[in-house]
Amino acid sequence: MDHMGHDMHSMGEVAGLPMAERDDDRDALRLDRLHVPIGPGLSDWPVGLILRLTLQGDVLQGVEVDHLPVPSGPRLPYWDEPWLLAAQGEEVTRGRAARRRCAAHLDSAGRLLAVAGWDDGAARCRRLRDELLSGASRQTIDGELRRTVQRIGRSRALRWSIAGLGVLPAGRGRAAGVTGPALAADGDAYDRLMMWLGEIERGLAELDEGRLLTSDELTGPRGRLDGPRPPSQALLDVLPELLTGAEFACARIIVASLDPDIEELALAPASGAAHA
Amino acid sequence: MPDAAPLWATVVLPVVLAVAAVVTAGFDSVLSGAAERGSAGSVREAGRRAVGPLREGLRLLVQQPRRTTAADRLLGRLGVVLVPVAAVLAGAVLPWGFGAVSDPSVGVVWFNAMEALAWAAVWLAGWGPNSALSLIGGYRFLAQGLAYELPHMFAITTAALGAESLRVGEVVAAQDGVWFVVWMPVAFVVYLLSALAMAFWGPFEYPLGRDAAGGVAAELAGVDRLVFLGGRWLLLVVTAGFSVPLFLGGGNGPLLPGWAWTLLKTAAVLALLVAGRRALPVLRMERYMELAWMVLVPLTLLQALFVAVVVLNR
């Protein structure tokens, strides 16, 4: 803490915990600053992600993005599996890929809704995700999935609660290397949620598609898998910019609306493309 | 005015409130079970889901309390215990149809004072563990208080104004003919919103928000957690129950005795709140504050003005 320099003379420790230091905030007020790490294990949080926050009041003054070491092994990142397998030359049906994409978006939406405090919506998303992954046929799941998606899309209270948070214009996203729904949404947390919901509905039509995925279709749920970096890396890269200056209450909504997948970072650069 | 209740009512009150809280929590658990695992299918399964909160309560009883470094154990405990205490004390002025445990001439003010006690309780419980997340939760409740308290007070005042009395018994008596909800609908709706806010439950769960890892309750485990969260259900029951004497005519109604009407109406209000909660995310206070001050305060003031004019011309 010594490197913080000024105003440190009376700072010490209480019960082994460092006291808050003080520093100027964005309004040039001198306020306590507190270092609070969140993650790596937290409910409704991308597993393994660590954010080291510097808080002044409830405003995030500094954000450092970190994550647990990503285990590298033969296992492919779960949510990207169908596309990567296809790139390696295996036979993967479009239906299987669509199923995985829908489930991935339901998983993300469930996390975002849980963080936004809509337990009911989150629970429904998660149940449908599990049903999709356990192989429910299109007929059995179609009605309820559509109803759930519509219900979420129609909720004015949800829109009112999360609109305007974490605005990521397409230009800025593209510069950071973001691809996939977060780029296409070209907007805030709510727009990204709507983008997921839209892809879920479109994917639903393809669930029983028997044609094979071609090896150059390398767009997973979070973006292009044949780029120089895994899509989640780009999502992590935009986090500090989106979070700095945000209030603590908004921070988790912003993270959940991007929903980086730490497992995806194990993806060696263009691992799939090499085979393609 | 109803007669004062017998002395045994004092002892029975907390028990009745606790039973009502367990039933409400059970109903809520059935609804969330349907969202999480699909419809129950059989009565047996529905019953199993309904006793979920009770099972969780027993589990908490035997769980180790958690200790945090440099915690303010005294104030933290005090905060936790004050939640159910405030709920029961507020419940003392609830008329059960035949009479309240106590019916002081300032009953409405007493009720409001007890909710101010709940403010202190939640903040202290957030302060106690010396954890950033629970402190954030504690402060969220203060922000929430700033947002909901003014419209809430105006709503309560409107009912008292209509009865020209702060005595709960007289507020009920004044609704012998027409219930207040009929000519004070705005006050009633605002009251229901603030009842949720006061019990920091449902869309007003912000101080216990998931995004702050449970906020005030983040570090609570074992008996502490049981008392705090159980106290919250008690608060919900009491605040929802208080809407009955204020706006829904109390024990007034045909055929059935007063206590039965009170029970029915309270159950209806609770069911409405618990079911309505399923449709809403948590309201972030940063956004709700705007609505509360720009829309709800003027609306409740207009409502109070309307009632005042009616009362003056009576």
UniProtKB/TrEMBL annotation, chain B:
Protein's recorded name: NADH-quinone oxidoreductase subunit H
Keyword hit for Nucleus: no
GO biological process terms held by the UniProt record: aerobic respiration
Protein topology in the membrane: Multi-pass membrane protein
UniProt main location, coarse: membrane
Cited Pfam families: NADHdh
GO terms, molecular function: NADH dehydrogenase activity
Subcellular location: Cell membrane; Membrane
Family statement: Belongs to the complex I subunit 1 family.
Bilayer-spanning residue ranges: 6-27, 74-96, 116-139, 178-201, 233-252, 258-276, 288-312
GO cellular component annotations of the record: plasma membrane
Gene designation per UniProt: nuoH
